[in-house]
Write a structure and sequence with these properties.
single chain, alpha+beta, Cytidine Deaminase, domain 2, two-stranded antiparallel ribbon, 4 helices, globular
Length: 157
């Protein structure tokens, strides 16, 4: 089998996290060696969207059922650990609950800074969880030429 940036085992871990967090959106990060899935680490992160929403509903109108926000402290720790291991940020994942797996306008905004990807080379994995079960997932990658994110075919498709 051809090598993918992520293994089925990693995906299963993500799906498990998505189902556990349901009906809240889950979020997390996958780091690993650039060229292979072996050695990947899946980091399930805390979705602090509910806290943000409770503290300032005007600024954060959505709660964790329809949005995610990775705990910045946790994110920093993961980035530091990745640097130490010479790992790259391979994927950022989150779930959509009672909704399909697509790259929303909000997801796009979050992934970009001044029109450039925040984590160049990182894929975005969106998992759809319906009624507590993973229904589908999609992978989106930055397309330099198009200047936009594009859905990527996964080997298991
Ligand atoms: Zn989303």
């Amino acid at each position: 089998m051809e090598d993918s940036f992520i293994s089925q085992k990693d995906l299963d871990r993500i799906f498990g996290h998505a189902q556990k967090e349901h009906p809240r959106e889950c979020c997390g990060i996958v780091t690993g060696p650039e060229k292979e899935a072996k050695g990947n680490i899946v980091y399930p992160c805390a979705n602090i969207q509910n806290r943000l929403h409770d503290e300032n509903p005007k600024e954060h109108p959505r709660d964790a059922r329809t949005a995610y926000y990775i705990d910045p402290d946790e994110l920093l720790k993961i980035l530091k650990a990745a640097k130490k291991k010479s790992h790259s940020i391979k994927a950022i994942y989150h779930s959509h609950t009672e909704n399909q797996a697509y790259f929303s306008e909000e997801d796009r905004k979050r992934a970009l800074v001044w029109g450039e990807p925040l984590y160049p080379g990182a894929r975005y994995i969106v998992v759809s969880v319906i009624g507590g079960k993973v229904e589908e997932f999609k992978i989106f990658a930055w397309d330099e030429k198009a200047g936009d994110f594009r859905q990527e075919k996964h080997l298991n498709d």
